[in-house]
């Protein structure tokens, strides 16, 4: 997989690049020091994953994420030192596929890049807890979102399992179907609900009351 990295601190940027380049299945296609450079880099290299810091000059990581999500298939993994709720929600709304703090281990970071590249969602445990608590405090819609979404019975089952953070393999085992069949259902769920990826599925499930905190 091909990865680009954006961080305004050269030492951190180089450290991430060296760590990822050492993996046999990862190629670092370039680095950027701000959001403007990142946009040009993504347009030129069309990477699978962009590892993006939030606070950068000229264009911050949130704005860059929104533009990348709107214009390319590159998935964004936000990595920051700031464990602030506002950033989490802004990043998810912008289209980020993952959000980790910079105190993550090297092994976990490599795993996260691979997961996001494969289409999985990736949120740190404290971030997930805050996200769930936030949506748990909101009023629920009175309509039936599953009916309005036009999902089949099987697609509804897949949606709920996606909302619980299950992988394709776990969903396949639960429903006793092949992984390829699950991938097909996931694609239809995303298409019918107008969602970009699994992170947005989780957010959608909580916003529409299909999942409740603690369950």
From TrEMBL:
InterPro entries: CheY-like_superfamily, NreC/VraR/RcsB-like_REC, Sig_transdc_resp-reg_C-effctor, Sig_transdc_resp-reg_receiver, Tscrpt_reg_LuxR_C, WalR-like. The keyword Acetylation does not apply. GO terms for biological process: phosphorelay signal transduction system; regulation of DNA-templated transcription. PROSITE patterns: HTH_LUXR_2 (PS50043), RESPONSE_REGULATORY (PS50110). It comes from the Bacteria. It holds the Pfam family GerE. Residues 142-209 form the HTH luxR-type domain. SUPFAM superfamilies: C-terminal effector domain of the bipartite response regulators, CheY-like. Keywords: DNA-binding, Phosphoprotein, Transcription, Transcription regulation. GO terms for molecular function: DNA binding. Residues 2-117 form the Response regulatory domain. The modification 4-aspartylphosphate is found at residue 53. This is Response regulator transcription factor. It comes from Nocardioides mesophilus.
């Amino acid at each position: 997989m091909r990865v680009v990295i954006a961080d305004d601190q050269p030492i951190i940027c180089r450290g991430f690049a060296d760590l990822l380049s050492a993996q046999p299945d990862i190629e670092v296609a370039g680095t950027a020091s701000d959001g403007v450079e990142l946009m040009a880099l993504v347009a030129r290299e069309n990477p699978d994953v962009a590892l993006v810091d939030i606070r950068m000059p000229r264009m911050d990581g949130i704005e860059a994420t929104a533009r990348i999500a709107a214009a390319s298939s590159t998935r964004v993994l936000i990595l920051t030192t700031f464990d602030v709720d506002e950033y989490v929600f802004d990043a998810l709304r912008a289209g980020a596929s993952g959000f980790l703090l910079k105190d993550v281990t090297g092994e976990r970071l490599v795993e996260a890049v691979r997961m996001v590249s494969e289409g999985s969602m990736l949120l740190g445990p404290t971030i997930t807890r805050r996200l769930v608590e936030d949506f748990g405090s909101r009023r629920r819609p009175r309509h039936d979102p599953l009916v309005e979404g036009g999902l089949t019975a099987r697609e509804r089952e897949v949606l709920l399992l996606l909302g619980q953070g299950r992988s394709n393999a776990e969903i396949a085992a639960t429903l006793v179907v092949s992984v390829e069949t699950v991938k097909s259902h996931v694609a239809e769920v995303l298409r019918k609900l107008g969602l970009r990826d699994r992170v947005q599925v989780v957010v959608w499930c909580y916003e529409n009351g299909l999942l409740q905190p603690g369950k």
